[in-house]
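hi!! sorry for the late reply, been swamped w classes. u asked for the two structures so here they r. pasted raw, havent cleaned anything up. first the sequence of the first protein and right below it the tokens
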Amino acid sequence: MSYNYNQTPYPGQQQPGYNPGYPPPPQAGYPQGGYPQGGYPPGGYPQGGYAPPPQPGFQPPPYSDPYGGQQGEAHPFNSTTNAPGYGGYNPEDPEIKGFDFSDQSIRRGFIRKVYSILMVQLAITCAFIALFSFEPKTKHFVQTTPSLFFVALALMIVAIITLACCGEVRRKAPMNYIVLFIFTIAEGFLLGVSASTYDQDAVIMAAGITTVVCLALTLFAFQTKYDFTMMGGILLVAVVVLFMFGILAIFIHNKIFQLVYASLGALIFSFYLIYDTQMMLGGKHKYSISPEEYVFAALNLYLDIINIFMYILAIIGNSRD
């Protein structure tokens, strides 16, 4: 902004509509109209002259954050806007994403909840297996009533599809527990019917071997430095190959073929147990499951364990028969 010192009046000569500022520095000779009222400030003008008058228009007041933060800082507890800063919540901010799931206390609570649910599921399943294998009347009833098997199979399929595909159902209590309980009852009934076709000592041996194998694999997954969470694609391909192998096993009634199929199944689901355990642990592993998915994590571990049990039982049964 430039000033015309010959035409700008001094504070003592204000005109209508004029917004006075600091008087300009003196020019050569005396300024027109004489000195301003009261005289010039003592000591002369400051170096560089006085600052120009403020520009017309609205000047915003300084930013004041009710949460005590700095300007541009996002606050996770104020979600009135999705824009960062000024009290808004920015979902793309890596430092602010709801709960910090890398917190070890949250992760330990999640692990305890998962294993608590898993123990209840395994207890229900073991009760069905023991009832159908060691109670002769119940064993005869379930083997001569195939309609119950198909009803349980339909319930199991509906429940597992609901848990796998409906995220809101498996995250919302108590609906997630209800659907998981229905799935566990149906799956336990199916496993009990299947186990009743084997000898009692074979069932006991398979249960003991499964317990030792699963405990050893779980401890290995907790302690190993190898990250198995990056093997999801490889394990998916292995399951597809195993599924095709199982279709062939339906039509090829050969003991060696059945043993190879059961051994491959036990091996693949042993790797799946390590994979799902490390996904649950999180921490140093590349991928991890969210602590909100405790029902889904328990379901994955449960399916791994019962598949290992069924394949080991098939290995024992085919080796004897």
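now the second protein. again sequence first, tokens right under
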Amino acid sequence: MRTYHIWTVGCQMNMADSERLEAALQRVGYSPVERAEDADFIVLNSCSVRASAEERVLGKLGSLARLKKEKPGTTIVLWGCMVGPNNESIFKDKLPMVDHFVSPSAVDEVVARVPNPIYTFDEPVLPIADPAHPPVSVHVPIIYGCNMSCSYCVIPLRRGKERSRPLAEIVEECRRVVARGAKEITLLGQIVDSYGHDLPDRPDLADLLAAVHEIPGLLRLRFLTSHPAWMTQKLIETVARLPKCMPEINLPVQAGHNAILKLMKRGYTVERYKDLIARIRATIPDVSITTDIIVGHPGETDEHFQGTLDLVRELRFGKVHIAAFSPRPGTKAAAMEQDETLAVPYWKKQQRRIELERLQQSIATEENAKYLGRTVEVLVEERVKGMWRGRDPRNRLVFFPDDADWTGKLARVRITRTSPWSLSGELEGKPVTTQPRAHTPEIIPLQTGYAH
């Protein structure tokens, strides 16, 4: 029996790529194993967005070096964002344990490195390795690469220019994924709301959402990650209009001061971002806005950071993904970091990160506490330590106990306990068999407490 092991670090796009690779490897006759030591074919799907991610990958490769010596027949592939276009030579001499270097998302190129495949196939690969146990929620990439030039970001250098997939191809893949048992689809892109601008007929994300929405059996539809520059009123109104589109939008702001946004080359101001959030909330009153923030970007002063704190207090995001600035080779911000007058000390970056995390934790505590005693509709994903785990329309984790099998079903759960990170409660009624009512106030009250 030929075996494989995939180790993945990074964003949802990397996770989606690995899901596809899993399915492809099984279709050529390979079986998964939990330990790399037991595998004939090992793939590390890498991330280079932060230095810490690259360090994890290099550490993993270091641990595989001994395995390579003990089992020289093992094939090791380094895949993903660490292996961008034309940079394989950087690693070949430094990482002798690696047999092949493959660029991000190139599933076919990884499979082509498989020694002695048992089968071949011509059909497109779906991100479902085991049709007998399909995942409840599946990620489907719709656009690869990035055309932006944010100062801190290495993605355009590693994933290349934006390439949208044809709308009909995406819809057909989503149809096949749902036919195999998936209930929720998340459409993915580095900048997902720029989808379609490079296609001949120029469809946009709103058009794609409307098309995927019509697939029978699909219960929920999401997308990420968006950029404020591409978030159109048409897209906002489409999310509000389509019941299967969940009331959750990820819209990275990255900083709360115009001076830093300008240095980051984000292309908008704080005022424009706040106006966009107000329009989203006016159109989708029960929406949850999540965001990404980088602290410690070169040039960020205490005053600039205070602007970020003030913005988070005012907008009260549902979730904030916070990162301390990490210089990435080849980016403009990495060059700025070399200037001692602009660089923010490591200790101050961490201090700001912790302060912002504490602020967001207090906001999340207050916002989630408003759900105590309310009933939410939960798409159940799996059982964890005796509790069913799923997500409400706003993508909050919800836990509840029950003896029946709720996998892939919609459950109404009355919330009895809240925390900054999740909700838990008691089951009400029987499994829901109708289409979801994502925006009905009797399930999720419209009063969210957000500042408008």
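hope this helps!! also noticed smth abt the second:
Residues 432-452 have pLDDT under 50 and may be disordered.
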